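Expect sequence, tokenised fold; for instance:
***
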Amino acid sequence: MNSTGLLKYAGTMLALAICSACSGSAVAPSSAALNAGYTDGTAAVSRNLSALPRYPTIVPDRRVKSKYFEYIINYYGSYATIFDYPKSVAQIGKINNVGGQGCTNVLYGYGKQTFWIVAGADQIVEYKVPHKLLKTLSVSVGMPSSCAMDTSGDLAVGILSGSGGGDIVIFKNASGSGTVVTSTLAREYFDGYDNNGNLFFDGFTGGSNFELLELPKGSSKVETITTSNTVQFPGSVQWDGTYLTVTDQIADAMYQYTVRGTKATLKGTVALTGAGDCAQTWIATGVVFCGDAGNGNGEVFKYPAGGSPIAVFTGNFDFPLGTVAAEK
């Protein structure tokens, strides 16, 4: 990567990687990782999640009559901003003391009445749309980074750092203490289920190499999935109705794969033109939402057409990392 590229990603391509510092153990990047655009962000952002309030607070909406809601989720322990696109692109509310990533109870599209957001150093919380707190789950093995739900209501939470760094915790029926499934990752970033109940997730190995993994439905053994192209930096993993998609934060693109056995074959590329760094993306109906850490906002792109944003959210943002959409 040239010097211009390094400057572009110095403050943004760290995305979730910087959050290793939040749990008290900064991870220094290897030279190989730097060549891929990965930069340790503890010098740029340093926060102590243990000092944050343990439960979210709500800033009431100006409007609550909309059916559809989108959430741009900012840095871990900060807040999520609420929108009602396509009615408006202006912020209508805020949920404090959360941050990171979100998920909901559909594989793609708008979630049905509820959604989840990571909160604090060891928690994930469920809300009723648009912002009523329903339930909090504790994660005992480390700091959660991502979450995904299958069609039966099981919740998978990825672990960024801590004793379970790189692992997945499965909460049956989104309740209880969860079952830890170990992996070969050192840091897990994003996860998503396909339509057959298989869980796919990505992140970095101890050598800072990208890796895509699968936990087949009904199995406790994780398999490594080889992609037919190179993914430079881990991004969202989500089923789109036809393909398994993986967002590449450096390429500003979403890759569409078919998966056979342990091989993922590239079938299409969705370019996110003008994105600064889409940390988490969420595929809805004909669009994909982006929590853009690089541009410091939330963006809407056509899906699967891609191209330039068709809308840009306006409001308060603090290093956006996540996004999710749900309806009443």
Remarks:
- The domain at 47-327 is CATH 2.120.10.30 (Neuraminidase).
- The two ends are 45 Å apart (CA to CA).
- Helices lie at 3-10, 31-35.
- The CA atoms of residues 124 and 137 lie 5 Å apart.
